[in-house]
Design brief:
This protein has 295 residues and is an alpha/beta fold. The chain contains nine helices and 13 strands. The strands form three sheets. Strands 6-7-8-3-9-10-11 form a seven-stranded mixed β-sheet, with helices on both faces. A four-stranded antiparallel β-sheet has the order 2-1-4-5, covered by helices on one side. A two-stranded antiparallel ribbon has the order 12-13. Helix 3 crosses helix 4 (118-127). The longest helix is centred in the middle third of the chain and has 18 residues, at 173-190. It is elongated.
Length: 295
């Protein structure tokens, strides 16, 4: 579904250039539900904006289905955003129109694209648990209910890809778990590919794979040990390391990002010594001059 190879994004002003993505590689399979994590400034939101057609890549390759987002024209980009991708913002004000009802909010994108289908709009609100609230104005809905309306809006034009930027960032933990359960159901029943950016590692049990981004590059992947295991159903929110296996990501040239805490523990700076003992690759701090002379 998604293929990024050597993806670069550079933001330029008159005085400065900021490299947000430095050759990022990532693959997302059709029908997958996965999460992207990273510190502020790591590049995860930039990646999401590029995949959503909200920003243009500077170099590299980025494909979503049949679309090449590096070479796409402006007219094609409009069609891509209407038909292929749905976007859920953390800030509800960017998803919703306050003076419309929940149902009218979901119907609006259908009208704009010429694909009006009231029955499907009502079905979407039913799927997200708002069957009895679809005729309420937004001020009559809680923050969690408004976020679920935003989920229905993002699916109104039957996209193949659903992107969510911190969808649980402004709700309590119980509502966050319910929202993630809805994502899982939509992924399973509609077959839509879902990519979620989140800071909440305790939600990782709701997805099969988590990709960590650091300094504009993919650094680590967490893959669920048992894909059939769902957490949170008993009210316990497991941490990411409880149910996922951690892997360091290699690019095509064999480069990898060693976790910062490992480097600090070994006092490794700009250089490292690497050895292969026949079974393992060993990475150590460089030998001192005295150690080199002794060998």
């Amino acid at each position: 579904m998604i293929t990024c190879e050597g993806l670069v994004k550079i933001y330029k002003t008159d005085d400065i250039e900021v490299v947000a993505l430095q050759g990022l590689n990532i693959q997302v399979d059709d029908g997958e539900m996965m999460a992207i994590i990273g510190n502020s400034g790591s590049g995860k939101s930039t990646l999401l904006n590029i995949l959503g057609g909200l920003d243009r890549p500077s170099a590299g390759q980025v494909r979503v289905g049949e679309w090449d987002l590096l070479k796409i024209t402006d007219d094609q980009l409009v069609e891509y955003k209407r038909s292929t991708v749905g976007f859920i913002w953390q800030n509800n004000a960017r998803n919703l129109i306050s003076y419309l009802t929940a149902l009218e909010n979901v119907e609006l994108p259908m009208m704009l694209s010429g694909r009006y289908d009231r029955a499907y709009a009502r079905q979407l609100l039913d799927w997200v648990g708002l069957k009895e609230r679809m005729n309420n104005k937004l001020q009559q809905l809680s923050g969690g209910e408004q976020q679920r309306v935003a989920m229905a809006i993002a699916l109104s034009n039957r996209p193949k890809l659903l992107l969510a930027d911190e969808p649980t960032g402004s709700v309590d933990s119980g509502t966050a778990d319910r929202i993630m359960d809805i994502f899982r159901r939509l992924n399973r029943e509609l077959g839509v590919t879902i990519v979620i950016v989140t800071h909440d590692l305790s939600l990782a049990g709701k997805v099969d794979r988590v990709v960590a981004i650091r300094d504009g590059l993919t650094s680590t992947e967490f893959v669920k040990r048992n894909p059939n295991l769902q957490t949170g159903e008993d009210g316990v929110r497991a941490s990411i390391t409880d149910i996922h296996e951690e892997y360091v990501v290699l690019d095509r040239a064999g480069r990898l990002q060693i976790p910062k805490e490992y480097l600090e523990a070994l006092n490794i700076g700009g250089k490292a010594s690497m050895e292969f003992d026949g079974e393992k690759i060993l990475i150590r701090p460089p030998k001192s001059l005295k150690e080199r002379e002794e060998t």
